[in-house]
């Protein structure tokens, strides 16, 4: 079969499409998925560059998000049948390939209304957004939410999830196309976070009250200002950061507010199971619909890695074998 292989950590050029042996049969609680699409996430670029806390042994195939059809099932993997349409939220062998072996807990049913390309955009983005909003952020119907950096895959998922749950959503995005996209998902107000004075514009959009909850995609750039945008008892959930940031603790103290971190990969199994059940319901009912920015052939994985870091984001990048 064909797969992207990384033989040395480095720039996008280390992503090479190769012919590799077919995967072995799944064992125990494993599932073999024939992949029709693979999702590209920022974390994939961090691992590929060697700038991540947990690095796989070389050589390896990147990727955990994907969608396809169940081809074989280990003896202890229950609740699936050969031919089932599924999406993946993790992989033992990597999803930048024509097939992958995954643990049973990382294989989830894909509703017939969702394409494989859309299914490859579910795993990390929607699970991250769901955990940030409801399990860490404790979002409640009627609250006012700001998604700071809303045009990326996680941001768009957060907007859709929050609107479906009855929150009023505002968002920010760095491009006109991104702002249109965020508004199309149901955001009541969308602001350019690159424009001077955008913090004042956001506060004015709340009539000076502030936000009950802020989902922050780039804390290194936005966290300090976020604290000034919070309402009393407000919360900020940090989903992403690329460096340190300086804050004024009095902005928290004066609002009885707090900042909460979120890392999907350390969420307990029961929390992840709850998330994927909720996502299936939302996808099946049509309340959730992944936004795919661009499909690229598997051979162009390096291009996808360059684009996902360069931004500005406008949905999910997906590789098609």
Question: How would you characterize the overall build of this protein?
Answer:
By secondary structure, the chain is of the alpha/beta class. The chain folds into 2 domains: 2-122 and 290-320, Quinone Oxidoreductase, Chain A, domain 1 (Alpha-Beta Complex); 125-265, Rossmann fold, CATH 3.40.50. Helices cover 30% and strands 27% of the residues. Strands 3, 4, 5, 6, 7, 14 and 15 form a 7-stranded mixed β-sheet that branches. The protein has a 6-stranded parallel β-sheet with strand order 10-9-8-11-12-13, sandwiched between helices. Helix 3 (123-136) packs across helix 9. The termini are close together. The mean pLDDT is 96.
Unreliable residue stretches:
none
* Helix residue percentage: 25-40%
Mean pLDDT, to the nearest integer, reads 96
Q: Any idea what the shape is?
A: globular
How many β strands by DSSP? 15
CATH homologous superfamily placement of the largest domain = Medium-chain alcohol dehydrogenases, catalytic domain
The total of helices stands at 10
Radius of gyration: 20 Å
The CATH topology name of the largest domain reads: Quinone Oxidoreductase, Chain A, domain 1
CATH class of the largest domain: Alpha Beta
Total domains, how many?
2
The H/E string reads: EEEHEEEEHHEHEHEHEHEHEHEHE
Q: How far apart are the first and last residues' alpha carbons, in Å? A: 10 Å
The second-level CATH architecture of the largest domain is Alpha-Beta Complex
How much beta, percentage-wise?
25-35%
Estimated structural class? alpha/beta
Sheet of most strands: 7 strands, mixed
